[in-house]
Amino acid sequence: MAWTSPKTWASEPLTSSDLNTYVRDNQDHLKDRLDNSASAIVTGNSTLSTRSEAFVDIDSEKLSISLTTHGGDVLVGFTGTVKSVVVSRPVFFNLAVDGVLYFADDGIMQTVVGADGYRNQSVPLCLVVLVTDLDAGAHTFKMRWKTHRTNTASMEITSLHPQFWAKEI
């Protein structure tokens, strides 16, 4: 349901049609936006990993969500853990919206796993991104990552379950 710009009242009578259009329908529109969300919780019997120096999907199916919006802003979040095989090698994270990286260069965030000399230890990761000014319609959101060419970054999904979500605001 679309938003109808409120009417500027003059001295005409109030009708049930006006009330339905300017009150009921606009309230339904606002409520639809509040209810509009999509999420994915990742499970499986393996570990996700990458050695790519360019951003690639973390998991093109499990960390891909679709949301049909009314147009405007969408809040996107991700929580999970990441490991790095090589001490002090960075792992970078980014968001793709409709196949296009939302941030240029090295993405939303970087974590240097094992900087204290320990490797192969899971480090918690949490990020929230405000995607602004999306057109109304269907959109696909995907989490992407990359690392240094001598490193392997991994995400365990067997007993730890990353969560990925998008909410129109």
Largest sheet: 6 strands, antiparallel
What average pLDDT do the residues reach? 85
Note the quaternary state here: single chain
First and last CA, distance:
16 Å
Low-confidence stretches: none
Our count of helices gives 1
The helix fraction, in percent, is: 10-25%
Approximate shape: elongated
CA radius of gyration is: 21 Å
Strand content: over 45%
- The number of distinct β-strands equals 12
Order of helices and strands: HEEEEEEEEEEEE
Structural class: mainly beta
What does this structure look like?
This protein is mainly beta and 169 residues long. Strands 1, 2, 5, 9, 11 and 12 form a 6-stranded antiparallel beta sheet that branches. Strands 3, 4, 6, 7, 8 and 10 form a 6-stranded antiparallel beta sheet that branches. A hairpin with a 2-residue loop joins strand 6 and strand 7 (100-101). It has 1 helix and 12 strands; from the N terminus they run H-E-E-E-E-E-E-E-E-E-E-E-E.
Topology, pairings included?
Layout: H1 16-35, E1 37-41, E2 47-50, E3 56-57, E4 64-69, E5 72-84, E6 89-97, E7 100-101, E8 109-113, E9 123-134, E10 137-147, E11 153-156, E12 163-168
Antiparallel strand pairs: 1-12, 2-11, 3-10, 4-10, 5-9, 5-11, 5-12, 6-7, 6-8, 6-10
